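Possible regression after last week's pipeline update?

I re-ran a chain I had predicted before the update to compare outputs. Posting the input and the new output here so someone can diff against the archived version. Not blocking, just want to make sure nothing changed silently.
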Amino acid sequence: MSRDFGVTDGHPLYSLHRYRSDVRHMVIFDDLVENEHHRVRLYVTNPVYEMLRQAEADGLLRVVHHEEIVEGCSEPDSPRRRKHKHK
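New output (post-update):
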């Protein structure tokens, strides 16, 4: 499970959103548009995750942490896991 990462907005760590059948990602990001600091945690679907990645590329936010969600359980990204993922 992820650490808190100083999250100020969004879904709680143990949110029931993570158990929805279409949720595949948990993303913690900094909102770079607001003047105040907002660190947001969201449990999102694949299309929403792609939108967040595009917003990061456009400089609107910065992804701090990402985990894949499989049947409500998180699987943190790690260099070792990414290395074996493509075999």
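Follow-up from reviewer: compared with the archived run. Helices lie at 46-57, 79-85. Marking as no regression found.
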